[in-house]
Amino acid sequence: MKKKSGARKGGAQAARKPLIGKLVIFGVGLIGGSFALALKEQRAVARVVGVGRSRANLLTARRLGIIDEIAADAATAVRDADVVLLAVPLAQNAAVLAQIAPHLGPQTIVTDAGSTKLDIIAQARRYLGAQFGRFVPAHPIAGTEKSGAKAAFAALFRDHELIVTPVRETDPQAVKKVAAAWRLAGMRVNKMDAAAHDRMFALVSHLPHVVAYALVGQVAGYKDAQTLLAHTGGGFRDTTRIAGSSPEMWRDICLSNRDALLQALDDYLAEFERLRGLLAANDGAALEQRFAAARDARARWLKRK
After folding, report:
1. Is 69 strand, coil or helix?
2. What is the value of pTM for the model shown?
3. Which SS3 state, helix, strand or coil, does residue 138 take?
């Protein structure tokens, strides 16, 4: 009987073996930090190493238990790593890939959390060489307007979607492991073509952020801006909430997805011109019809969620 009990105990211990032994996070902010906390909550990672530009932020991350240690440099960080997550501003990805490429082990998986995919795939192909097949492009669709390690929380990804955009060379086992990690963080996982992904998010994510920044910038540019802003209500606040996001991050996203975002902006300007024309023509019936169509489309979208 004791032997059987011991066998069960050993099996339970094996079952509790973490999915990831050593996780290295470049950029321990909202996304990277929340990923680490979610995996720790699930006991799915044994050790988390943090790398970043701000020593103060890394110290905060270690104090909060997000990471277990701070790496001295990129080469030391990725040594013997099971998974490397790039959660830095998009403009830093190429430099990080170039730094870590010579030091990656043959089984190390590199993945990212950026909201554009064609650019990071091209960069990974350029810098990772033979290791490119172990790169898994991914986009967790979750976040807040806050940033830094203090903004991280384990529940950020629950009931949200992760999109992976593997290419022909991507190792299916690497995709499987990355997807499993994000599922443990609470996400639903779907696959998508990278170009289709970038067009989609130019329209439903990147464009809204540009619009929010533009609206605040317009109102703030008037001489009586303080008076105007003192009288804003919920509409202005709700429409511009995402203008509180990191300007550096959104600068990089806009430039990274430049072609798709320019097309989205052109289409948006055309819609604005259409509404302006109706207003100039004093065509109330057509204006109401346009608003009603948009309202109904939004209602259908919310009903499906």
Report:
1. strand
2. 0.86
3. strand
